[in-house]
Amino acid sequence: MMPNALISTIVALTGVASAFLPTAPSPTSAVHQRSSHQTHHHLQSSSPLTLSKMVTAKESTTSEELIPRQILFGNPENTSPLLSPDGNHLAYLAPSPDGVMNIFIKSNFAAAADENELFVAGRMITNSPKRAIRSLAWAYDSSTIFYMQDDDGDENFHLFAVDNATTSTSEDDGIIPKARDLTPGKDVKAQNIFTNYRYPDQILVGTNQRNPKVFDMYRCYYKTGELVLDTINPGDVIGWKVEDVSFEVRAATVRNSVDSSTTVRVRSRAGSIDIDSDDNNEEGDGKDTEWRDVFHYPYGEEGGLINFCPDGGKTGYITSSLGRETTALLKVDMMTGETMEEIYCNEKANVGGITLQRDTKELRAVTYNYARTERVFYDDELEKDYEFLKSTAPDSEMEIGVASRSLDEMKWVVAYSSSSGPTSYVVYDKLKQTVSPLFVSNPKLLPYKFAPMEVVSIPARDGLDLVGYLTRALGKGGPPTPLILLVHGGPWARDYWGFNPQAQWFANRGYATLQVNFRGSTGYGKTFLHKGDKQWGVGDMQHDLTDSVEWAIREGIADKDNICIKGGSYGGYACLAGLTFTPDLYKCGVDIVGPSNIKTLLDSIPDYWAPLRNGMLLKIGDVDGDEEFNKKISPLYHVDKIKAPLLIGQGANDPRVKQSEADQVAFSMTEKGIPVEYVLYPDEGHGFARPENRIDFNGRVEHFLAKHLGGRAEEFAEVEGATARFPLLEKEGNQAEEA
């Protein structure tokens, strides 16, 4: 873990993945995000869990039992464990007594001395009353906790600090410290957050408080709350990088609003700031403070700055697809841009995670992911650590991830993940070479049997190979079953192998689930990504989904008369496109926060997406200047072609896909007499973060699918605390009153 990186864990509980995220060189922020779908409810487990039991205790039931939606989609019991830098304390997320995810601390934390020892709950240090806290991090003082929170899904995340989080008279004294908002202000959003162990009382944070369209960098003295403008955004910067030793902002990722090319600007040291300057540039303190354009990526190329080396920022690491198909890891001269060494490149997949030694920045490991996560080691000691951890894993098919490490790297929290069970966390004592159980994210899942997720290769009609993930309802060799085509969001994102609550839910109800990395998905190189350009709706991106369904039918997996298309965000758009442009293929559809009119979608994006808008037009097509093209790819204009019933879910506060996108297609279908159900949640944004709303909507989905596909369904009951509204029924009621 790089010392200037804020360790942030995002618990992805919305069911909507990477939805309508404009692409930018990765990484542009030092905030590391991890997903944990597979988790549930708090306090101690009812029975001891040995390391083997943590993931294999499935003998007590059969797959014939209905797994309750509350268990699949409710809160985690414990998740997102983070060691303090000194290794003495553990922070994690768990439900409050009111059932809302909050931060808990176990002070003077020590791993279980015996594998039969229970995990005993720590002390709750935050009290978010309604909306879950989904990200947290330690300050390097090993006492202060940072977390991010927005307001009912508006995505204007503020950065909060909890002081003296590890100080209490007892573990359960009931006293909850008051959190301080470090980035206050209406409609302010915080991002690009950096910490540094050399500067334990400071952080660097980007906010748009000066200008809602751009993110300047501020130096925050979090003990006092003082926020000092550090680096001004001239208007085209979409991400920043910090040099570790000086803890100065030394690099900026710039997006050209005309040709959508990307440039990495670099400076040798930071300068002073003149906030009153008309051009918003920093004052000249010598040539070494001037920004220089060093690395340039024309539209269609991928890459970005990873980190500086500890030589005053003269050299560093970048990723780049220039001259190759996938991104490679390069060591470069930061003054001239010259490549000094090509370190690693995989022919089939982009470079993924990169592990550097904290101080020397020597390369330790590289990951890539074509179908599963693979590691290439450059550090023998680190490789031995992973070999040891793999040898202690309960199942050889499991993937190993490091959730956190102490600053001296002698104590790790490690995640063992599987496609057929919840994630289990253990503590690795590097010095003693021992692994001790910590907790299972969702132990209530352990009694149930789950279907393994299979990696499949699907040929598109033009011969392009697509990586997909198949979760069968009845296992290999069974008769064809109804199929859910589960489409990922983005679309400039991808699906991954692992435990997917939705896929397991469907498998348990009698449906196969197919997830496909269609062209335009990320991670497979520049050609694969840009084969999706201008291919929305009636083009090859949608054809890939159609071809995948037809493949599943040919392979005897799917019942051709019982296919549902479901997705969130771009996946919701793909659902609408599937029902309008291939109306005979699908029996029904479920659209969550999906846009119906691409022109109105782009006209309503947040102000801070402005530098990225032209790149979205290059990928989608010119819906601004070509009205006919917009009508061609926007499902709203083809509603009369829909034959299958549709269920829509929408958050009223969605800043990306506004409520109007759902309104207009739902009301249009109603006017034309096409069956549609529409559920609106007034306290949600781009997806359903509150478990009450998530469980409520999934209950409605389950009965919708049972009605149209014939699968099994748990009894539907009103969920206490859910805020579902029904705009179509409300309009009908208003019209009746007026009459």
Give a verbal description of the structure:
This protein is an alpha+beta fold and 739 residues long. It has 13 helices and 35 strands. Strands 28-29-31-30-32-33-34-35 form an eight-stranded mixed β-sheet, with helices on both faces. Helix 4 links the parallel strand 30 (481-487) and strand 31. The longest helix is centred in the last third of the chain and has 19 residues, at 691-709. It is globular, with a radius of gyration of 25 Å. 53% of the residues are buried.
What's the average pLDDT? 89
Q: Are there runs of 5+ residues with pLDDT below 50, and where?
A: 1-19, 21-62
Cα gyration radius (Å): 25 Å
Q: What best-fitting shape do the alpha-carbon axes yield?
A: globular
Terminus-to-terminus distance: 65 Å
| Proportion of beta-strand residues | 25-35%
Count of alpha/pi helices: 13
Biggest β-sheet, characterized? 8 strands, mixed
Percent of residues in helices: 10-25%
Classify the secondary structure makeup into a structural class: alpha+beta
Strand order, sheet with most strands = 28-29-31-30-32-33-34-35
List the helices and strands and how they pair.
Elements: H1 53-56, H2 69-73, E1 79-83, E2 90-95, E3 101-106, E4 123-124, E5 136-138, E6 145-149, E7 158-162, E8 179-181, E9 190-195, E10 203-207, E11 216-221, E12 226-231, E13 237-243, E14 248-255, E15 262-266, E16 292-297, E17 303-308, E18 315-320, E19 328-333, E20 339-345, E21 351-356, E22 363-369, E23 373-377, H3 380-392, E24 399-405, E25 411-417, E26 424-429, E27 434-440, E28 453-459, E29 465-471, E30 481-487, H4 501-509, E31 512-516, H5 526-530, H6 540-554, E32 558-568, H7 570-581, E33 588-592, H8 598-603, H9 613-620, H10 627-633, E34 646-651, H11 659-671, E35 676-681, H12 691-709, H13 727-738
Parallel strand pairs: 30-31, 30-32, 32-33, 33-34, 34-35
Antiparallel strand pairs: 1-2, 2-3, 3-4, 5-6, 6-7, 7-8, 9-10, 10-11, 11-12, 13-14, 14-15, 15-16, 17-18, 18-19, 19-20, 21-22, 22-23, 24-25, 25-26, 26-27, 28-29, 29-31
